[in-house]
Design goal:
Elements (H helix, E strand, L loop, with lengths): L2 H4 L12 H15 L8 E3 L23 E9 L3 H12 L5 E4 L8 H4 L11 H4 L3 H4 L10 H14 L6 E2 L4 E7 L4 E6 L4 E9 L8 E3 L10 E4 L5 H4 L14 E5 L3 H13 L2 E6 L5 E2 L8 H5 L5 H12 L22 H9 L10 H27 L3 H6 L12 E2 L3 H4 L5 E5 L7 E2 L3 E4 L2 E4 L2 E4 L9 H5 L2 E3 L6 H4 L18 E3 L11 H21 L5 E3 L1 H14 L1 H9 L25 H14 L6 E3 L1
Parallel strand pairs: 2-3, 2-7, 3-4, 5-19, 7-20, 9-18, 10-11, 10-18, 11-14, 12-13
Antiparallel strand pairs: 1-8, 5-6, 6-7, 15-16, 16-17, 21-22
Helix pairs in contact: 3-18, 12-13, 18-21
The structure holds NADPH dihydro-nicotinamide-adenine-dinucleotide phosphate.
NADPH dihydro-nicotinamide-adenine-dinucleotide phosphate (NDP) binds next to helix 9.
Length: about 625
Amino acid sequence: MSDADKVSSLKPGGIDFDADALRTRYRAERDKRLRPDGNDQYIETKGDFSRYVDDPYVQPGFTRKPIDDAVEVVIIGGGFGGLLAAARLREAGVKSIRIIEKAGDFGGTWYWNRYPGAQCDVESYIYLPLLEETGYMPKERYSYAPEILEHSRRIGEKFDLYRDACFQTQIKALTWNEEESRWMVTTTRDDVMRARFVIMSSGPLNRPKLPGIPGIETYTGHTFHTSRWDYDYTGGDTTGNLHKLADKRVAVIGTGATAVQCVPYVAQYAQHLYVFQRTPSSVDERLNQPTDPEWVKTLTPGWQKRRMDFFNAAVNFTDLSHGGKIEPDQVGDGWTDINRFKGELARLKLDSDTTPAERERLMIELADFRKMNQIRARVDRVVKDRQTAESLKPWYRLFCKRPTFNDEYLPAFNRPNVTLIDTRGRGVDRITEKGLVFDRVEYQADCIIFATGFEVGTAYTRRAGFDVHGRGGESLTEHWRGGPKTLHGFYSAGFPNLFHMGITQNSVTANFPHMLQDQAHHITEVIQHAKRSESRVIEPSPEAQAQWCETIERTESKSRDFQLECTPGYYNNEGQLDKGPGFVGGLYGGGPIEFQKIVDEWLSAGGMKGLKFS
Ligand code: NDP
């Protein structure tokens, strides 16, 4: 019996769509986009393209004296991950900390991404970490980038981290020194630092990538990547007023989460805007609102963690085919909707041979169809030109790509100065000296803005910008060829006293700072344990590591099946899961709550099984 038959008894009043027809459409749209070059379609920002990663926010010419010393903990990265790790260590009484950051300040992704309209998509009350500790309440439900950057600085100040920070400094190499049982950290500022522990938190989306469109190097107009917005060229700032674009024809390549936020601003100011789309994003309502002071008065200590936990349960991002349990829906936004819909479908009668697992899978799929139908219907309601509206409809399951939330993006296409170039899954054919070509038509442009995202799926060390050499000189690139190998995502055999933060064989939530907060807590506990037991070296046993890798392989299958059905993108390694996991692959399949339970129990059992302290 087909799924459609199983749910046929639901009509009327149950589902009002043809599930099988949607499945067929989704597969056809995916197949159209699969391409043999997968991840290799992108250009690395090096050599002739290295200017795309220059820091536009600092004055040129910064110098300082090289440092030659020893510290207890070196943290690589001054984004939320590094800040949270440093704050927790500071609270735990670790005095000797150093944070190394290539940017000119704290903030990580919010330091770099200052494009107009940049805003967090997860509500600020759970996205901005340490709100209770810093005594700050965001102004709006979804904060704009400057407020988030300011909050990063607030954390730096509150925990007295500025004195420990080395900005505008990049790691050259990280080498384990066997005799000293320490890491030797060398940098582009000629520093030589010795560190007992190193925490790597360089961020999962930190290296801009460019599309390998033929002719890209021949273009003579102005170009930049969204993560290095060129306000000298556009005029204005993150709030808009891009007045210098008034006489410019601008092309934006890409329609992901970044483009959805910046396109309305460019549309407002450019003489003409061409948006080159390969795959449309799902664009849900934003419905931002100022923080209600009456609601703030009702909050009791520990509220932020409780709200984070709730969201985490509601949006199970690792097991994407499976929703969490969320009644009542305290957050109630586009992220938690699928689960709400699923709840509404709960009374549907299915054929009696349907197992509970099948029922669960089907319910979440139907809820997803319903959610995406709602998103497509919104396009029809907002966009006036029928052909443009059809082009802007996404045909895939919600979590196949990063969902977006915006109230100005779709209306931008009603403007006479905005043209959507739907490349129907193919992408821009060619770039010429003067513009961009699709289907033999050249669109001349004074400026191309690359909203083409960040490297994912390339070697971890390539994205970090340096290699790590552990015991016997083994490089992490080699050790991780074919994918990360860790215990719980934190530690790797042969690389003692080195901790990884971010997404590596652990579990991810849509609310990244929550995940980073849990990781910072965990690492601090382990470092504290090492100090209490006067251990100089911490390292996982190869057996424990192998066992965890086996757990990952076994549990990730559900997510893998879901990913295979998805339209290509960085989530599923551009549709080539046989060549490596995508952004949400290679993770613990039981979801973030189960993962956290595993590591918490591992910690509280006391022995930290599989980790050798010596
Ligand atoms: P993405 O990787 O999500 O999007 C890149 C875009 O470029 C896609 O639309 C892609 O199309 C398109 N593209 C790539 N190559 C070509 C080509 N040859 N021709 C035409 N189009 C092309 O990058 P973003 O910067 O938008 O977002 C990255 C991530 O950053 C998000 O997923 C999110 O996690 C995070 N982010 C978070 C925000 C927030 O919290 N508010 C805001 C912005 C970003 P295709 O889809 O077909 O591959």
